[in-house]
Amino acid sequence: MAESKTSVRYFGRATGRVQGVGFRMFVQQHASELGLTGWVRNMEDGSVEMEIQGDPEKVDKLSVLIREGNYFIKVKELKFEPVETVPNETRFVVRY
To answer: What family name appears in the similarity comment (predicted)?
Structure first.
């Protein structure tokens, strides 16, 4: 699928119950299903950082899913800031 010229990319940071509860896999699964690219990783302070790139409406949809979480995942705060898009990125990965 070719990227549209309206792709956006955001750096995000989530806090709350977001480590040890499958949060990274949750984000990766939903991002991949939405056709988004980027990455997600745990941080030493207990937060999770991510970069999400793709269609603005799909990025918004993913942010809603992240905020909703699930039975295990409880996001207390999620902040996003725009960053430069990464050309030729093809998938969403979990970084370790």
So the answer is: Belongs to the acylphosphatase family.
In Å, what is the CA distance from 17 to each residue of 51, 68, 91?
A: 19, 12, 25
Give the domains, in start order, of the chain with CATH numbers. Answer: 8-94 (3.30.70.100)
70 is an active site residue: no
Residue 90 amino acid letter:
T
Q: Is the predicted pLDDT of residue 3 greater than 50, yes or no? A: no
Catalytic residue among 24, 67, 70, 95: 24
42, 67, 88, 95: the catalytic one is 42
Whether the pLDDT of residue 2 is over 80: the answer is: no
The kind and range of the H/E element at 84 are none
